[in-house]
Design the sequence.
């Protein structure tokens, strides 16, 4: 989205929220314009963080439900983009919170042993994430570059292709191969245990002198 589109959008949303204009509420006009300007960028933003396509659609719908019901709280129209992305990040966080710990709202009643297990799972994921970051640095340059641009700088496959002069399928293939090589390095280094949602719950080093972990 360009700065000019954001500015135009801010102008369209600058009218008093809730005022009737030709029989239509101004807040509805504003939400419609936010949808037109942000729905595709937000979908791409969510897809880089959530694998399941149906979950992506559900989160996107949830985001616009929250936008519609909170549009009257948007006081500084020049900050529409920041406000929309803040709502989206919260929706993604809620998704993972619910997905991983459906019982989280009852955490104060959970036995200490269960809470300890949850904390250990989080620690295992963080440690593996650090191992992966170290391994990325040892990948061949073209695969290292592909992962850094997509996973850390959050470029889409299309943007990666444009940056590196690759076709869409070529960019997708390069990322897949890079992930495959990274997976091989990780499995050579560690034995991993996963829960049913794919989260790492435990791992053991296969050798004591792994230079990555």
Sequence:
């Amino acid at each position: 989205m360009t700065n000019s589109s954001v500015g135009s959008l801010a102008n369209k949303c600058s009218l008093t929220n809730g005022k009737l204009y030709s029989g239509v509420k101004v807040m509805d006009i504003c939400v419609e314009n936010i949808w037109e300007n942000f729905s595709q960028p937000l979908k791409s933003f969510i897809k880089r963080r959530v694998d399941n396509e149906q979950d992506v659609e559900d989160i996107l719908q949830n985001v616009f439900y929250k936008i519609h019901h909170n549009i009257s709280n948007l006081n500084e129209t020049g900050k529409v983009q920041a406000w929309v992305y803040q709502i989206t990040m919260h929706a993604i966080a809620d998704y993972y919170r619910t997905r991983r710990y459906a019982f989280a709202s009852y955490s104060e009643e959970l036995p200490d042993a269960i809470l300890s297990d949850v904390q250990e799972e989080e620690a295992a994921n963080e440690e593996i994430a650090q191992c992966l970051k170290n391994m990325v640095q040892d990948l061949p340059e073209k695969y290292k570059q592909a992962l850094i641009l997509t996973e850390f700088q959050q470029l889409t496959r299309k943007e990666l292709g444009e940056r590196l002069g690759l076709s869409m399928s070529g960019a997708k293939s390069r990322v897949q191969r890079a992930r495959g090589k990274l997976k091989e390095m990780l499995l050579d280094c560690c034995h991993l245990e996963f829960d049913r949602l794919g989260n790492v719950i435990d791992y053991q080093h296969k050798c004591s002198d792994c230079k990555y972990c």
Notes: The mean pLDDT is 72. The helical segments are 3-12, 26-47, 53-70, 80-100, 112-136, 141-152, 157-164, 168-189.
